[in-house]
Amino acid sequence: MSEPRNKHLLVKNRRKLISPVFHLQTQQEDEKHLSKETIKDVKRTGVLKLHAKHLSSVPSRVFTMYDEEDLPNGVSLDFNQSCKDELWWNIKPLTNLDLSSNVITELPGKIGIFQDLLTLNLHDNSLTCLPEELTSLTKLTKLFINRNKINQLPNDISKLAELRVLKLSHNCLEQLPDSLVDLVMLEKLDLSNNLIKQLPSGIGFLVRLTELDVSNNQLKTLPPDIVNLRNLAILDINHNSIEKLPESLGEFRKLQILHAQHNDIQEIPDFTGCECIQEIYFGNNFIKEIPDELCENLQQLKVWELRDNQITVLPQDIVKLAHLTKLDVTNNELTEIPAVVALLPHLQSLKIEGNKLKHIRADVVHTGTQRILQFLREKLSDEDLNALSNGFESAPIEACVFPDRYKMRNGNILNLTMKGLTSIPDEVFIEAKEARVASVDLCKNKLGLVPVGLQMLSEFLTELNLSANQLKEVPEELAKLAKLKLLDLSSNSLNSLPIAMESMVNLRELVLLNNRFNKIPDCVFGMVGLEILMLNDNGLTEINIEGLQKLSRLATLNLSNNSISFVPPELGNMTQIKWLELKGNSFRQPRYAILEQGTESILSYLRDKIVTH
């Protein structure tokens, strides 16, 4: 293809390359955006905004609008002359120039005439270089050049001595001038999404920096003196190839947020001294262990993201992270989650998918945070509680501070776990009703009766946890909670349930483990929506197959650790069951070897035993 014969053809071809619907303006069209009215406003305010005007060049009139021939009628730069319309001393110099979101390919050197410029915004253009005259703008405090094609910065950029904010993200920078570290007034520096392989060794001189973003580059190390940035509050180094963080990371006394995900980090550094740290992101690295003493030094931590690493153990000391609200350990090599995690008072999000957990069922993991925490609370031993809950059981009920409706609205949850309660005032449920509470967790208390006030929540309540109390019976009125989807009555002293509960057709999960049932309660067979039924660790002597066959949606059935002497072969026809647990009973068939092979093998074995006539 022959080279375009003139500039007009070149512009025409460039227009086609950019977008078939985008019109690349000519210089004449660019000039039209600077009307006399616009210029008048500029002189009145000192601000010129040419954002998103489809400019392909900076209008030449920008550089002449303060010339005398461009002044409004009646205005002269003669200091002895005045005018009724506008006085010369009312004219403000240009302090803010916004040329962002255009397709400007070149910034003219004439930019240097605006000696009073404080803010220059050039983001989202097509600039490939910057004129040396830019560095003469010595009053500049904010410079935005992000999302261009800049591959080099002026060597004397240090002349911009008043610069507070410098945004250079999404360019083509491979290296930085040494003079960058002389911009000692800088408070925010964004170098993200470039091709930078190394930071200047003197970066520690930028002691006023509060935010530093070098994410999405090609860094392998951080200069040792980076820890001198003692005012740094946010450090983002994600998506690099960094193998090790500075050992003296604790020098970041004011650091609040650290983004270090998607690197090659193998060890978590010592955070001793980082007393303000609130969020740490270490996802997608090669971390294998969490140092024992780490949690002691992170007591203000709120968010801890450790997903996609190789961590095998979470330390028991994680319970010391009293302010933690989010914990993500997805896709590691954990085999268990410490039950003490359930004691973290502010934990709202717990992600543990993608691990080989031995003691937490997959359906619990996938149900979400509240269900996981409920499961972990049930696993807490008395020793855990005595050692870690600081004697909550002996606390007088009068001293218990009940949440008000405003606190309960955050998640629509009433959580009174492990308070040593023997009763709950009706006023608490009145507040809960106002908050439209959908989940109530009363586990690990001393309740001998189901609180009557729960009936006030019948319009909203979908989850109720009464596990680990001292219940000996359940009132018929519980059946009025018709919208319940999850009911946990485990670890009580129950031996029966009222038949009225068969009307709870919306119930999806019923947990009755560790009670005193000697048969499956008849009401269960009317709960036609039931998907999960946990009856392990009771005294069941038989399996009512006729009743169970009515539960067509049942997918999880745990009858382990009972006194069942016979397993009806017809159970094998309930092929909708995906998780069946029968171990720890007195029957001889199926044998233990079959039970070890899993649900499909058990069901298949039972079907083969069905006698046909």
UniProtKB/TrEMBL annotation:
One of its GO terms (cellular component) is cytoplasm. The keyword Ribonucleoprotein does not apply. The keyword Repeat applies. It comes from the Eukaryota. Keywords: Leucine-rich repeat, Repeat. InterPro entries: Leu-rich_rpt, Leu-rich_rpt_typical-subtyp, LRR_dom_sf, LRR_domain-containing. PANTHER family: PTHR48051, RAS SUPPRESSOR PROTEIN 1. This is Leucine-rich repeat-containing protein 40. It comes from Dendroctonus ponderosae (Mountain pine beetle).
